[in-house]
Amino acid sequence: MLKTSEIAPCFPILQNKTIILVIRYLFMILLAFLLFGIILLISGKDPLQSYKDIFTYTMGSAYGFSEVLVAMIPMLLTALAVALPARVGLINVGGEGQLYIGAAFATFGALTFSSLPAWLLLPIMIILGMLGGALWAFVPGYLKSIGLVNETITTLLLNPIAPKIIGFLIFGFWHSPMDTVKTPNFVAAARLPTFFGTRIHLGLVIGLILLALFWLFMKYTRWGLEMRAIGNNAQAARRNGIPLKKYLIVVMCIGGAIAGLAGMSQVSGFYGVLLLNFSLSLGYMGFMVSWLAGGEPLGILLMSFVISVIITGGNLLQLTRGVPYSVINLLLAFTVFVVLARPNLIKGKKV
Amino acid sequence: MLKSPDPGSSPLNVVSMRGITKAFPGVLANDQIDLDIYASEVHALLGENGAGKSTLMKILYGFYRLDSGQILVNEQPVMIQSPHDARAIQIGMVFQDFSLIPALSVMENLALFLPRLPAVLDVKGINQRIQEVSGRYGLDVNPNALVAQLSIGELQKVEILKLLLADARLLILDEPTRVLAQHEVQALFKVIDTLKKDGYAIVLITHKLREVLECADRITVLRTGKVAGTLIRSEAKEEGLISLMFEKKLGAPIVVPKKVSMEKVSPLLELRDVSTHAEGLETGLKGIDLKVNPGEIVGVAGVSGNGQKELGDVTMGLIHCSHGKKFIFGEDFTDKSVQEARFSGVAFIPENPLTMSIAPFMTVLQNMAITRTMKYARLGGLNIDWQAVRMDVDRSTKKLGFSFPLYILARSLSGGNLQRMVVARELIDEPHLIIASYLTRGLDVQSAIAARQALVQARDNGAGVLLISEDLEELFALSDWLIILYAGKIVGNFKPEDTNVYEIGHLMTGSKVEHVENQ
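Predict the joint structure of the above. Result:
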């Protein structure tokens, strides 16, 4: 079906590029840790010990590693929700809002059809979650396609509205008898299956599959080709008869749907309940991951893993070393800084 | 005679340019140009687009560095290496696209440009000077208005005021009337007249004959980077200027126009009274009636910016008709999309391949496929048959005799190769209707002939062609029918053998139209 001999000539630089990309990112992450080490040193903590703590916890223990993977799941999805629209030049900052609405739709499914068996209920929740996210993204996508408002602004401005709607739904209709800030716990059939007795749930598999599909889609399909043409030169694509408006709306909605799926997987796989303000900036985190990864699927995998290590490790440092959690934000910031400064840093190294 | 408003500065009597040569990659924009600009005179630089007028003046203003030649001010050689240098010797220029800051007020914009801007603005003093100068030259604008709120005519006034306040004595105006309405043009000429009487030297870059004859004292005609002639107003006549502007040689037609059969044929493209809205600096089309029959090349002549781009875009469906109807292959296409037009067999070679036709960071082969991904899609779109793309490309390039690399990024192709690529791509599927803007731009002689022949061949096979061009020679050689666009209107409609380059020249420069309207 996909003979590489036929495709390879079109992508002569790909083979080397992938390796170089990985080396680059590893080098940059190393640099970020170096910078953060200096901060730790200044505040009187032993950086080597701290790092050792982080790594033995996250990589050395099965439990720690599983927690890293759990943290990765929503990031994979929300990063994809940014990377896909970026291919046609759309900047989707609205992952956060789309995630909330997706979660709300999925919760509606979980509460309404709670008597259905899992094999039926879960697909319904997935579809509902994606539908919710897509609807939330349709508004900016449509407004952009008719040339009215820039999607960056609309997606961003829609973000704070979504949690308010969730609040309205929870307080007004869905709250559990015990607690007004969350819904009743989902029935077992509405929970995504978990693996190996850890908190890793099916969302991870879904995320990885979507990431692979994204790569195949962009590389081989007719739509991928047209999307790349739009991202390259929208004016020319339009003159060449590619339906620009349709693509802008549809791609934006698919992006939203993936973010909605992230919301669904959080409530169904992680919490098992819809909590007020449960996201904690997962949407923005995805934006950062996608940006750092340059929208490349492999980069998204790598970056979301690294960010998850940092966050999970940060929780630990707080306990073992008495480092305030906010310091971890410093490490995150360093990572962003180093990655964004990449062109100048690398040029001298002649990779 | 009135005294100059700033008698303190030394007068600028004559600016001479000697042997000015400037080459850009692929073109010699200015070739050994000599030019003298005197105070108290309006010097018109006349020529077609690409004749080198703007380049020459941008050299004088320090915007471009000259390759060789010399600039003398009052007989003294000077070095002008930047606009800053130019302003220091009292030369100022108003560009076609204005350079004001919309968020600031008129006064603030003017103050920014003052040669010695103090740390603390003397608002009162500046306002007073604005009043003085604007009152004297009829450049009335409200100094406190935001630039964003001004009309285009007012913007121009502010641009001129800016130069005057900055003590410029030589004012270069690059096509100042391009964006102005008729009454604004008259007002501008009045301003220019007053400035002239006050001893300013003014250079007017234009391709409109009527304006030149109305307000210039000295006229230099440029043609393909060389001075075709310099005349003083009393010597200049319309006929003479036109023959200087447009080279008189008309080569033999490459192919004899095909005898169109007299039977009733339905046109491939028909525009009925089509108008469009103009946005910003674009030209709106006004009441265009146009037919392209099978086996016919319709040439569209005109100086660029008179609606050519809009004509191509409206035909493809990129911009909507605000009025009128459009028919393609006998079907009402007024509200149909570009995809539908392309799908039914319309090819489009836009004027600028790099910005309007290709995806720069995709390979050439990928670019060849993006106009018809449906055709090459396999497995319902999940895969693309690159072999088929290659075969199509090979066939098309072989026919045209073009060759260019397929597996490099499109952006690394030269301008000529890009154009070849687009021509080859658009002719792959033997379209029934071809819209070609500036078909031979950037092509060498050989490729240009091949591209033209391809059009003629398509025509002979029954396709219709709308050929938009500024190259009169090309239009005369290829067209079965010739229309002339001026200010968004069709002002002439001929068989090529019934007209001549002078008549077309008149119409393109708008001189005849004005003539008729004035009577």
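Chain A touches chain B at residues 1-2, 6-7, 9-10, 12, 220-223, 225-226, 228-229, 232-233, 235-243 (CB under 8 Å).
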